[in-house]
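Continuing from the previous page of notes. For each protein in this section, the sequence appears first, followed by its structure tokens. Read the first protein now.
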Amino acid sequence: MFSGIVSAVGRIAKSVQHGDGQRLTVDAPGFGMDDVAVGDSIAVQGVCLTVVLAHPHGFEVDASAHTLSVTHGLAAGRPVNLEKALRASDRMGGHIVAGHVDGVGKVTAFEPLGASVRFEVEVPGQLSRYVARKGSVTVDGVSLTTNEVRGSRFEVNLIPHTLAVTTLGKLAVGSPVNIEVDLLARYVERLMAK
């Protein structure tokens, strides 16, 4: 489990074919590798991946063909948001995030508002029912609170801190983004269907 509070921005240094997927080498200066071990989960651009090799300045993970087919942003040279899995004693600064990307959305607005940015994303139609006004959504691994929801689009305000410490400040209209909807909404839907 994660909270969607990014602790560092890394970079995918290398991506090589590994079975039907890819072995990714992530450079992670400033991430703090002293407590990372083989088998740990790390959210990379919102995708929960398992560490297969750790070194002082980064780590390696395997991304399956399925993971690569339902996400974006896991290519060599790309900057990526990073978050270690939560401990039971950690603060929950964002919301409950599984690291299971539900789909790829598209940025439809990116407009400066003073030091902040009005940010609008269109999600695949089947995901729109899980996004609620003043609810939580994860974009590229970042926990965000929606301000408005219109059909399959939602709007958030990106504050200067979020723009500075995540990859979201580098987005533009048309950029693809990994979307994970609120896990609780999925469980509520399942319970209501019975």
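Done with the first. The second protein uses the same format. Note its length before scrolling.
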Amino acid sequence: MWLTPKSGWRKSYAGWPALHKLQGVDELIASVRGRRAPVRNRLRIEPLDQNQRTLAQHYRRKLARNRLIRRGLADELLQRAFTTQPPRRGAPPATKLLRGHARALTASVVRTLGSAPYSVEQVLRMLIERSAELALYVRGNRRDALRYSRWMLERLTAVYSQGETPQLPL
């Protein structure tokens, strides 16, 4: 819709829900009319004629960056709950604790957040993989470790489901 002055657009759109938005745009344009643009240079950040990347390459890079962001948050939370040095002889690996209580942890988070079980399972799978890669062990007693694991799984599931990490709308 062009808001051409004196075109009668107010009458044309009278009674339409979009009229309020069109009036807002008209007010905004009126407030900047006659002013010089604050940015007047023609510098282009990434000229399209010089961009040789394919769309697949772009999304691959974006996915890799997102993985690092998610991994960083998961690693930080895991290292608060678990330790890289076994605190006592026979301390179980974090992966064993998480795998052994996967069903209960998933069910608890699904009940609490109302998230899809599949989503919770995927976050838990990532936590188990990261625990294995970081070679983490249970610190303290199992009950505290399970309580923290449940909280950690809830937090990460909530973060991912609310879109606080970059999403890729395709």
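What the second structure shows: The CA atoms of residues 66 and 72 lie 10 Å apart. The chain has a mean pLDDT of 84. We return to this in next week's lecture.
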